[in-house]
Amino acid sequence: MAQEPVVRVQGVHYAVGRRAIFDGLDLEVARGRVTAVMGPSGTGKTTLLRLVSGQLLADRGRVETFGENVGRLKRDGIYALRRRMGMLFQNGALLTDLSVYENVAFPLREHTRLPERLLRHVVLTKLQAVGLRGAARLMPAELSGGMARRVALARAIVMDPELLIYDEPFVGLDPISMGVVLRLIRSLNDTLGLTSIVVSHDVREITAVADYCYLLSGGNVVASGKPEELAGSDSEEVRQFMHGLPDGPVPFHYPAPAYDEQLRGARR
Amino acid sequence: MIVAVVRELWQSLRDALEALGGYAFFAARLFAGVPRALLRPGLVIEQVHNAGALSLVIIMLSGLFVGMVLGLQGFDLLERFGSEESLGTAVAFGLLKELGPVVTALLFAGRAGTALASELGLMRATDQIAAMEMMAVDPVRRVVLPRFLGGVIAMPLLAAIFSLIGLYGAQLVGVQLMGVDTGQYWSQMKAAVEIGDVMEGVIKSGVFGVACSLIAVYEGFHSAPTAEGVGRATTRTVVISSVVVLLLDYMLTAVMR
Fold this sequence. Notes:
The complex is a heterodimer. By secondary structure, chain A is of the alpha/beta class. Chain A has 2 domains: 7-84 and 161-263, 3-Layer(aba) Sandwich (Rossmann fold); 95-160, no CATH class. Chain A is built from 10 helices and 10 strands. Chain A has helices spanning 45-52, 75-82, 100-111, 116-129, 145-157, 175-191, 203-209, 227-231, 236-242, 259-263, and strands at 7-16, 19-29, 34-38, 60-65, 68-69, 85-88, 163-167, 195-199, 212-217, 220-225. In chain A, the strands form 2 sheets. Chain A has a 6-stranded mixed sheet, with helices on both faces. Chain A has a 4-stranded antiparallel sheet with strand order 2-1-4-5, with helices on one face. Chain A is globular, with a radius of gyration of 20 Å. Chain B has one domain. Chain B contains 9 helices and no strands. In chain B, helix 3 packs parallel to helix 6 (139-177) and helix 4 runs parallel beside helix 8 (195-221). Chain B is mainly alpha-helical.
């Protein structure tokens, strides 16, 4: 029998004001795999992560994380759920008044009563895993963007989560830092036996590490499959996104009145 | 025209009521969390240092100058009635019951209140609050409550220091410059000022401490996650705190007179 998926999204509708973000979204995240969620900006990739982690509630439909209906959970239930997951924010979101060491130790200090020696052992182990044991004493302001994201990654795995969520982990990184983060996503997933969801629009990078990809557009999944399947897709929408074509189903031009009419000053 | 004005007034009233409800709900959440927050005194002490010790210089300097002005003005006025020996009493009443708590609260709103609001606003804007939520750590309990309590504890202490330095400043001008007798200055003050007068100032500064700290943490915690939002939260903290302190001052004075 196939294993239960870690995340199951069924018929989810979600709108901000009058603008529908999701219109009956369905997807599943299988245990043990790196699942990529891709799509143009503004398609609700981050919103999906927030629905999965209970930061937002769906207007309609069902979001299940670890088999729990997120929409039915109260605050304590949501917090219990979040203790089983880690999240890497776009900018790292390190606590700026704490050192690297204390940032990684933060969840342990809040949720456990580990003796200081053991806590130090755990923190240094996690920092070693992301290659920043030597930076333990630095403050967040002294870190580069890539280092900050690796520290945030160490913090995200310090409670040994089952699910790791990455929100745009490659934004603003130089090629070396990007390579490091890519390698970490794969190696942490495999060595720690995690399940990972990576939201990104960096197609080349993400398809290099993902086991399975979802492509979102217009409030729904327009394609899904293994990275090589998506790369070879005949769908115009998929081809435009996967190959970065400037024009296609997603038009280059924002809707506007006729060009010559506007230039002649008839309309603003 | 009239319909538009009425509609705008109605909207303003609704916004004000909504904000008031938000404040009441947030205050209830804070007060409910106080016993648990006191179990981690280290976090609170750190914030007493941030809100209190770091405001000391401005409080002491202001206290000194306000006291000196009171000494000068008080002397000029009392001299007309030939009762300049009562300078100590007049200054003590003014400082302990009124100027100490009020000016300290206004300075606190400008120094510590803005620091609190902008710090919380920046934490919101840089996803630090969201990160705590994702780590299953309640940011109100971990970040907001210690800051709130730090402000509440620091305010009466700062007001007391302000008043003491003010008394010394008035003595400096009245006695050293204008020639009022030292013994008269202190003994008349001691004879006239009762414990009730001191308590009036303590109660006022306690209430102002709760109000100013609540306003600062509420505005900062609920600021929009943008540079503009943080700026607006900081400005609102000073404006709302100043008006609320002066309003509360009148109400408390009327009740305790």
